[in-house]
User: Which sequence fits this backbone?
């Protein structure tokens, strides 16, 4: 049973290696390393939350080949990513770049937490002030309270 578990674990770990086919691998190990690094940063447009490096989709294969062609042509990593963004939009990047257009997406959760926390602190302090304003009972209220309590006996 243990051997079966180990074999399944090894098979699962090796699945991403099956995505890149041998005919896609570049002869130059430096370029291949750069291509692999870039492929992990680019989203598969079919699989959504998977990189093209680990996707078996035909479009992912086309994008891997495109990345390798651009690198072979002499493009830098940034030029390849810029080319893909120009062609497919910012969505193609697994880790979107910080820009004015998506700054709201980056800072909205923090702003919501700060505003919500401030509102909670304000509300709790206000509630505490209202409960501290206890006014002592008047003589009439004391008499009414004693009457009510004595009725329970």
Assistant:
């Amino acid at each position: 049973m243990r051997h079966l578990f180990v074999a399944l674990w090894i098979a699962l770990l090796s699945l991403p290696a099956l995505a890149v086919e041998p005919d896609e691998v570049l002869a130059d190990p430096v370029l291949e390393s750069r291509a692999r690094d870039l492929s992990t940063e680019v989203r598969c447009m079919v699989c959504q939350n998977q990189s093209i490096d680990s996707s078996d989709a035909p479009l992912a294969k086309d994008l891997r080949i495109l990345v390798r062609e651009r690198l072979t042509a002499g493009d830098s990593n940034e030029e390849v990513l810029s080319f893909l963004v120009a062609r497919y939009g910012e969505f193609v990047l697994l880790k979107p770049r910080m820009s004015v257009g998506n700054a709201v997406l980056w800072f909205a959760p923090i702003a919501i937490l700060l505003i919500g926390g401030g509102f909670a602190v304000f509300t709790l302090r206000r509630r505490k002030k209202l409960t501290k304003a206890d006014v002592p009972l008047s003589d009439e209220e004391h008499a009414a309270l004693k009457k009510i309590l004595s009725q329970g006996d």
User: Anything to note?
Assistant: The chain has six helices and no strands. The chain has a mean pLDDT of 81. The CA atoms of residues 80 and 140 lie 85 Å apart.
